[in-house]
Every structure is written in structure tokens, then in C-alpha cells.
Amino acid sequence: MKVLTLVIFCIILALTLVVTYWAAKRTNTASEFYAAGGNLSAKENGFALAGDWMSAAAFLGFTGLTALYGMDGSLYAVSALAAFLLILMLIAEPIRNTGRFTLGDVIAYRMRRPEARLAAVIGTTVVNLAYMIPQMAGAGVLMQLLLGVPYSTAVVFVGIGMVVYVRFGGMIATTWVQIIKAVLLLTTAAVMVVWLLSKVGFNPLNLFSGVEAKYGAQMLLPGNYLKHPLDTFSLALSLIVGTAGLPHIMTRFFTVPDAKTARKSVIWLMFLAGSFFIVTTLIGLASAIFVGQDQIRAADKGGNLALPLLAQYLGGGAGTLGGEIFLAVVCAIAFATILAVVAGLTLATSGTIAHDLYVNVIKKGHVSEVGQVRVAKLSTLVVGVLAIGFGLLAEGLNVAVLVILAIAIAASANFPIILLSLFWRRFNTAGVIGGVVVGGISALGLAYIGPAFMGKDAIFPIVNPTILSMPLGFLGAFLGTWLGGRDLANEQRYDEVLFKAHTGVGAKK
Description:
Elements: H1 2-24, H2 30-35, H3 42-53, H4 56-69, H5 71-98, H6 103-111, H7 114-147, H8 151-198, H9 205-215, H10 231-242, H11 247-250, H12 259-290, H13 293-299, H14 306-314, H15 321-362, H16 369-393, H17 399-423, H18 429-448, H19 451-454, H20 466-483, H21 488-503
């Protein structure tokens, strides 16, 4: 199986490297590096968004949670999909119309103050690194468990891969790597579902009744994983509003020519991701029935190997050629999924460091086109080194905790300042700083004293702190705005911002 997995993975890797080589010849300007020149179609961007959003946590984590905890696991998938309703109706069009390359552009267009852009840099970098670390750690654990490759070797390999994709191909390469990965992931999931449904008479309800018969009715009821009454609400709130604060997702709206295309790309994403997340629930239930919870926990106590084990079972079982081939395919695609996601995170992080911090804060916009691209590529190396370093330090940590933390910070620090910048006339630079500082610190602090870090000794009883940290982020933004005093020039620009946000007149491609 190890040889098969390596062969299949090398084939996928070779395909993505060819794409990177092709993209490198088409990446010369800052716009092409950061935003693919703003020329992607709705379908292309929709598939790339799906590739960005369908991470290893979704592919492996949601399936494992459903297999071990029943319908509590499926709540993660439903909440993740519902997130894009908010983005479609409220966020996608204004962000596309008021920004150019980064979320810092959206904030700075309204505030015109370097302090506001610097606050956006901090929020973006912290969220991206927090989201990147569990991806790196997940790659290390996956290769360690399935291939016997040392954890550190896997983390370094992923780091080098993401730097190659981003440094040489920029957004064009990252986009097409994500599209390829999305197609592979959706195809594999579809094959698995048809295969497992054939074993239950093509009636999905038989999966639910099978789980109930084997594990009892409680498996189909809430409360198996999310123990506190408010955990479910906080989880849904975090994923729904936190997604709108994830920089690597939001920056994809700068890759299309106009707001209409941005909205269409979200619709494509919802169709693709919706199909995928429904599938994760069915696969999770099937894993519980055909593989068994004891065997899943024996392979990985968090349940992250439920899907690969089901693939092995469907192919004929351990030791059979079919079982080993299908297991190898699933493992290779899971690893390719991690590579694609960290590439998107790397690009978003290097973009904010180069474009927001260096070009606009330090150099105040006085940098040539060639210089911007050079700094962006250099910052990619810096981000790669940081990601590898943090990934190595994360060995042995619960990666689910880090994912919770990243989403909570996005919901508490980034989402309030984006929303208020677009829809509150009086909002000012002090409010941006207050929102990022209070929201970010409260999310970090509450998560640290919560069950995710402290277990049974937790002071704060809810796993996901968003239910409290997001209101605190808004409070920090409101207090900062009022204590910072009136900024009449900023308030006078509000009508211009609102007009541009909803019409797209004057928006840059």
C-alpha cells in the first residue's frame, strides 16, 4: 500500500507541478500574482473556492466525527455550508467592489490610515497561521500513520511544496491546483457513495437504520460530542460568520472581473460543497457500520482515518489488491488536499505581508510593479519557513483545537471590522484597532481556558468561544470608535464607499 500511495501521490504531484510551470509563464504583474489578473470565470473560481474550503479537516475530520459521534459530526458539515449564504447575500459583492488584492485593501479604502491597514495585517496573519498549522500537523500525522514517514519530514515536504506552488505560479497556479484537487475529491467521494449505497440497496435511510441498530438511537441524536447546550449554537455561529472573516477565502473574490461573477462563483461553491458535505455524513455513517467504531479508534482515536478505512473495506478489505489500491487513492488525494489548502493560505498571508505591510505601510505605495512581485515572492519564503516551524512545534497537539481557534479568531476579530467598515458611517480607525485587539485576544483567551485546552478543568465551559468572543469583538470596535472621536473626513467618504460597494462603479480589476 505504501508503494501504491507514493506512486499515485507522485502522479498527482507531477500534474500540479506541470500546472505551476504553465502558470509561472503567465505570472508577471502584481495583479497576476495576487489575483490571477482578475480574469477567472465564475465556474473556475467556484471550483477553486470549493478546493479551498474542502480541506483535510472536512474530508477526514467531518467523516470521522460522524462515524464516532453520529449526527453531532454532521452539524459541522451543515454549518460549514450555511456559512456561504451569509457571504452570498452580504459580503461577496461589497468585498469585490471595494478591495483589490487583500482584506486590508477593503479596510484601507474606507479609513485611508496606515494604522487601520496594519490592524488588518495582524488579523489576517494570525488567522492564516492559526489555520495553516493544523493543516501542516494533519499532513505530518497522515504520512506518519499511513506511510511510516517521520512527522518532521512530512511537514517539511508540505512546506516546500506550498512555497513552490505560490512563489513560482502565484494565484494562477494556486487556483488550478485547487481546481484539480476539487475535481479529484468530488470524484472520489461520488465513487465511494455509489459503492457504499450499492451495499444498502441504494436507500440512504438504510444507513441511518443500520447505525441505530448497531449503536442505539442516541447515535442519531445531539449531545454525543457537543455536550454543552450552547456548544451547537456557538459552533454554527463560528463557522457561519468566521468563514466571512477567513482571508484566504475572501481574497478569492478579487480573482474575478466583477461582483456579478463573484456572486455566481459562490453559487457554484455552494452546489459543489453542498454535495460534498452531504456525502461526508453518509460516508461517516457507513464507516461506523462497515468498519466499526472500535477499529476506527484503534487506527486513530480522533477518527481521522475512518474514510481511508472505509475505502479499504469497499475495495475488498485489508490485504486485497482492490482494497489497497482504493486506500492508496484516498490517502494520496487527502494529502493533495492539504497541499492545495496550505498553498491558498500561504498566498493570502504573503500577500498581506508584501502588499499591505511592505508596499502600503512601509513604502506608502511607492514600489514598482517588479518590486511588488519580488517582495511578494520573498514573503512567500518567509511564510513557508514560519509554517514549517509552527507545524513542527504542533506535533502531538490536537489539530481540531487549532482549527477551532482559527475560525473563532476570524469570527471575532476580522468579521466585525469588515462588516462595520462596509455598513457603519461612524466607524473609524480606532474602531478597527479595537475590534481586532479585543476580538482576537478574547478568542485566544477563552479558547485557552475552555475545554479544548483545559479539558475537565476548564473555566469557560464552551469548546468554541465565538458565542462570547464575537460580541466582545463588536464591543471593542464600538468602544474604539466612540473613544477615538469623530473622523469627519472618513464619515464623508462613507457614501462613496457604500455606492461603490453596491454598484461596482470604479472598482479595479
